[in-house]
Amino acid sequence: MDKKRESGEILEHMLLEEVKIENIDYIEPPEEWNPEVHQKEPFVPPVLIREKDPIEEGVDERSEYTLLAHHRSFWRMQARGQFTVRAIVVRSSVHISLAHESIKNCVEEALLFDGLLRNELCENRSRLSELLGYSRARITQILNLLKLPGEMRRKLLLTDEISEFQLRPIVRVSKVKDQKEMFEHLIRGKLTGRQMALFADEKGNGDSDIEIEGMPDLEELMSRERSEGETEPGLSRGEARRVAAVVSPAHVRSLMQMIRLRSDEWRDEALKQGVSRIDMEFLGGVSKLRNGLYREAVRILEDVVEENPDYAPAWFYIGKCCNLTGDLDEAENSLRTALELAPDEPDYLIELAIVLEKMKRENEASTFYRKAGAIRRKTAAGRETN
């Protein structure tokens, strides 16, 4: 989650509405919920949204409202037997920005985005990204958390310490059983995004039906990570294998040969070679970037990753555009996503190093410069041997 002002500071001047608890549709707390454990947490007014059509959305006929955020505050009031709750009801763009700034839980952020889009308070993801200062690709990454199993989402509402970045490898796993095993390791070990990705890689290479006891030891995974000399969270060696079948480095090099031609020529060449529609969109985005039209390029490339989240080159060029326009936070997020999918691409490593250097994070930058140099030296040595 991004750094935000304290919830109390944001909400103390907002007009709160009194709403009957029986009129609110909400997520039930998980079995391990204990009001006493969270009793000392500061009370933050729950965030609600009035459903445009409750029955059509599968909400109980009496439930006009849906709880989006600050579930622990709501559950505490419910446990005390209260009949009403003073809450923020999101009705306009003013409410959206203030409610969003109060949220620290990644699942609640996803619930807010979903509620706004579902009830057309924001007509689409583009408008939501403009309102909150997020890229559309980032909006999509956060919404993807709602693909996690319901019980897992309920448990995540108990803590604000787990980020979307740490959960991203779990979202990419298709089998629920594997997701649950990874989630248990995350909860017990408070793993970084990189450690989660390493564990996801081991699951992808093993038998999905074996029990946790048969899985690689967690300390062994962490030790292997350290022995590779890379401690920065978020870079996965294993995720590349899944995308390789879709967008291999050789395929990307072939595409980039076309984009070096003049505008009219690369389109003709791409059509002649039968380039897929999504590859054509990608090339169109890169072409815009080459002509200095960075915002147009980002819009096109975000369409690509919204349709195909594992398209690593599109994430790379989104990051490059954001770097060129000075949006360094978004550049870092996009480049780290590209590196999760293709961790040994030296161009991606160098671009991230440049961004980190601009952010005055020289030690991190030097790590990526060194890794890129080592990969290029190894590649050159391989060519000489052949």
At the first level of CATH, the class of the largest domain is: Mainly Alpha
> Any guess at the CATH architecture of the largest domain?
Alpha Horseshoe
- CATH superfamily placement of the largest domain: Tetratricopeptide repeat domain
CATH topology grouping of the largest domain:
Serine Threonine Protein Phosphatase 5, Tetratricopeptide repeat
Portion in strands: 5-15%
Please tally the β strands and state the result.
5
Question: Average pLDDT value?
Answer: 79
Order of helices and strands: HEEEEHEHHHHHHHHHHHHHHHHHH
Unreliable runs: 1-5, 205-246
Cα distance spanning the termini = 47 Å
- Sheet with the most strands: spatial strand order: 1-5-3-4-2
State the helical fraction. 55-70%
Give me the secondary-structure category: mainly alpha
Q: What is the rounded Rg?
A: 23 Å
User: How many individual helices?
Assistant: 20
Please state the overall shape, judged from the principal axes of the Cα atoms. globular
Count of domains: 3
For the sheet with most strands, the description reads: 5 strands, mixed
Characterization of this structure:
With 386 residues, the chain is mainly alpha-helical. The chain folds into 3 domains: 141 residues, no CATH class; 66 residues; 147 residues, Serine Threonine Protein Phosphatase 5, Tetratricopeptide repeat. A 5-stranded mixed sheet has the order 1-5-3-4-2. α15 runs antiparallel to α16. It is globular and about 75 Å long.
